[in-house]
Amino acid sequence: MEPIIVEAVGTVVGGRAEAFDDDWNTEEALIRLDGTRFGPGSVAGLDAFSHLEVLFQFHRVDPSDVHTAARRPRGNPEWPEVGIFAQRGKNRPNRLGVSRCRLLAVEGLDLRVRGLDAIDGSPVLDVKPYMAEFGPQGETVQPAWATELMRAYY
């Protein structure tokens, strides 16, 4: 496969300094867009949306720590071993995270958000407004362990 080159569009500023699970909805941070590449027109109309979808990199995960084999999420012995593509852990190929968060304000090229589960300094690769029509169509299904894992995440 050909390599894909992606340049960050911005950086997470503030919020948590370290990644740890749960209570992300209490966190507020900025997504500071790159002012050398983007101007006010890049965010025109964004303030009409309540939520964003943010693609970011888990920049502190060492590539040698990437897991591809099955493992128990959070090391919980009560949960089944599942592959990396059946979980949302940070130690994954390409070290990419996707988060939906509340947009609190657009302040120039700073997007003030709550509930972004990325840490201070995370490179932001893309920002999109969340539109309900891009959400799942029809019923969604997930295993009980996933519901238990996410109980206190936000």
UniProtKB/TrEMBL annotation:
<protein>
    <submittedName>
        <fullName>tRNA-Thr(GGU) m(6)t(6)A37 methyltransferase TsaA</fullName>
    </submittedName>
</protein>
<dbReference type="GO" id="GO:0008168">
    <property type="term" value="F:methyltransferase activity"/>
</dbReference>
<keyword id="KW-0808">Transferase</keyword>
<feature type="domain" description="TsaA-like">
    <location>
        <begin position="6"/>
        <end position="139"/>
    </location>
</feature>
<dbReference type="InterPro" id="IPR036414">
    <property type="entry name" value="YaeB_N_sf"/>
</dbReference>
<dbReference type="InterPro" id="IPR036413">
    <property type="entry name" value="YaeB-like_sf"/>
</dbReference>
<dbReference type="InterPro" id="IPR040372">
    <property type="entry name" value="YaeB-like"/>
</dbReference>
<keyword id="KW-0949">S-adenosyl-L-methionine</keyword>
<dbReference type="Pfam" id="PF01980">
    <property type="entry name" value="TrmO_N"/>
</dbReference>
<dbReference type="GO" id="GO:0032259">
    <property type="term" value="P:methylation"/>
</dbReference>
<keyword id="KW-0489">Methyltransferase</keyword>
<comment type="similarity">
    <text>Belongs to the tRNA methyltransferase O family.</text>
</comment>
<dbReference type="InterPro" id="IPR023370">
    <property type="entry name" value="TrmO-like_N"/>
</dbReference>
